[in-house]
């Protein structure tokens, strides 16, 4: 490493101000600080009051996503195996899954880093580190059948419109990964919705996702429909483990909870947001269950513990709702922010069966309201202190 450090020192004058390559200093600085520690202080948000810099914080988030990533890759091959009616080991399933996963990951990272380097070079600013996590999230929130050109278009939109026009990492209003997914959902709905996009296998194969089974049924009980579904095992235990069709990283609640434990233990992710989201979802689901008898909407009969393991709720709550940039900052605000995400997830799922997955929209909506939540929390604290001093 000392040899590499000496190379950086010799190259630094060429990239520093006045050097022949000074225009590309942001690129040089990004490679340098990625490889070695830096003693520079953060000049703009997000701020971390610790010796751990932002790049290392991003690495911890990546480590927390590894269980969901590995499981998701194996599950791609497993779902293909079931669809083809064959049998093979988990290593073979992983190899099949990697063939679908890696192209999406490489294309997403290549596209995102292009924009992440272009903007700082033009603006003569440092390169942001936030795309380390966003790039990893991209293949995890998409189906394995997504066309790669759509990944390029959506990633460009998410990075440029969702983040860079606001000034880069620390200034964006919305989570860029969710902006990418929302763009694909509304621009190319056939690539991310429906029953034919979740299993990479021969043309003509299709199968309903867990949320679409009760959403497509008028009347009846959601649990009975799921347990009686023949094509896939939609029992609660199997959905908790994750051997079901779905976006690559979102199917296994167990793997996601392992990642959540890592984030909470390292204090990178807010346990208040995660807990608040779960409470909001459970409370709202109990309420919708109460009104199920007055409606033919089958989604109203879906119990809380099924909502938890279906769709992208846990993945979104753990890895995207806790984004320190777009989430609420105050402790009380985080409780409110998280509760509303859980509340809106159930409301969107239950009241709009045509769009049974509500987590993405719930988080994006609360991203927009998180500054307002913090504002009222801070104002309330100020009023309490003024009232206490007046006494």
What is the topological layout?
Blueprint: H1 2-15, H2 25-35, H3 54-84, H4 90-123, H5 131-140, H6 148-160, H7 176-187, H8 212-215, H9 222-227, H10 236-241, H11 253-265, H12 271-290, H13 304-309, H14 313-319, H15 331-351, H16 359-390
Helix pairs in contact: 3-4, 3-5, 3-11, 4-5, 4-6, 5-7, 6-7, 7-16, 11-14, 12-15, 15-16
Plain-language structure description:
This protein is mostly helical and 391 residues long. It has one domain (54-205, 214-390). The chain is 61% helix and 0% strand. The chain is built from 16 helices and no strands. It has helices at residues 2-15, 25-35, 54-84, 90-123, 131-140, 148-160, 176-187, 212-215, 222-227, 236-241, 253-265, 271-290, 304-309, 313-319, 331-351, 359-390. Helix 3 (54-84) packs antiparallel against helix 11 (253-265), helix 4 (90-123) runs antiparallel to helix 5 and helix 6 packs across helix 7. The chain starts with a helix and ends with a helix.
**What is the CA-based Rg, rounded?**
22 Å
How large is the count of helical segments?
Answer: 16
Q: How confident is the prediction overall: mean pLDDT? A: 84
Q: Total domains, how many?
A: 1
* Classification by helices and strands: mainly alpha
The share of residues in extended strands comes to under 5%
Report the major sheet.
Answer: none
Helical content, roughly? Answer: 55-70%
Q: What gross morphology would you assign?
A: globular
The low-confidence runs, each spanning 5 or more residues with pLDDT under 50, are none
What is the chain-wise order of helices and strands?
HHHHHHHHHHHHHHHH
For the secondary structure, the number of strands is 0
> How far is the N terminus from the C terminus?
62 Å
């Amino acid at each position: 490493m000392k040899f590499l450090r000496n190379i950086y020192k010799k190259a630094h004058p060429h990239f520093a101000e006045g050097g022949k390559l000074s225009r590309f200093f942001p690129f040089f600085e990004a490679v340098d600080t990625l490889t070695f520690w830096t003693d520079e202080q953060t000049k703009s948000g997000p701020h971390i009051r610790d010796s751990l810099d932002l790049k290392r914080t991003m690495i911890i988030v990546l480590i927390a996503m590894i269980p969901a990533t590995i499981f998701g890759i194996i599950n791609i091959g497993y779902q293909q195996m079931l669809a083809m009616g064959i049998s093979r080991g988990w290593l073979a399933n992983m190899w099949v899954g990697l063939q679908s996963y890696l192209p999406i990951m490489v294309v997403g990272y290549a596209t995102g880093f292009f924009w992440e380097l272009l903007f700082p070079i033009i603006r003569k600013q440092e390169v942001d580190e936030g795309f380390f996590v966003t790039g990893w999230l991209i293949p995890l929130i998409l189906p394995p059948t997504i066309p790669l050109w759509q990944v390029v278009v959506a990633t460009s939109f998410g990075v440029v419109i969702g983040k860079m026009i606001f000034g880069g990492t620390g200034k964006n209003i919305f989570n860029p990964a969710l902006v990418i997914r929302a763009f694909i959902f509304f621009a190319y709905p056939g690539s991310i919705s429906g029953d034919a996009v979740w299993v990479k296998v021969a043309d003509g194969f299709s199968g309903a996702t867990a949320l679409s089974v009760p959403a497509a049924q008028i009347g009846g009980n959601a649990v009975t429909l799921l347990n009686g579904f023949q094509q896939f095992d939609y029992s609660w235990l199997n959905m908790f483990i994750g051997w079901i069709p779905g976006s690559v990283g979102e199917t296994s609640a167990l793997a996601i909870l392992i990642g959540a434990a890592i984030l909470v233990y390292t204090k990178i992710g807010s346990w208040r947001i995660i807990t608040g989201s779960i409470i909001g979802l459970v409370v709202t689901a109990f309420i919708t269950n109460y009104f199920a008898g007055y409606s033919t909407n089958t989604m109203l009969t879906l119990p809380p513990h099924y909502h938890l393991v279906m769709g992208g709720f846990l993945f979104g709550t753990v890895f995207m709702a806790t984004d320190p940039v777009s989430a609420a900052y105050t402790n009380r605000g985080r409780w409110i922010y998280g509760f509303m995400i859980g509340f809106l997830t159930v409301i969107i799922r239950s009241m709009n069966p045509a769009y049974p997955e509500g987590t993405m929209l719930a988080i994006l909506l609360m991203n927009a309201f998180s500054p307002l939540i913090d504002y009222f929390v801070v104002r309330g604290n100020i009023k309490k202190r003024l009232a206490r001093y007046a006494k």
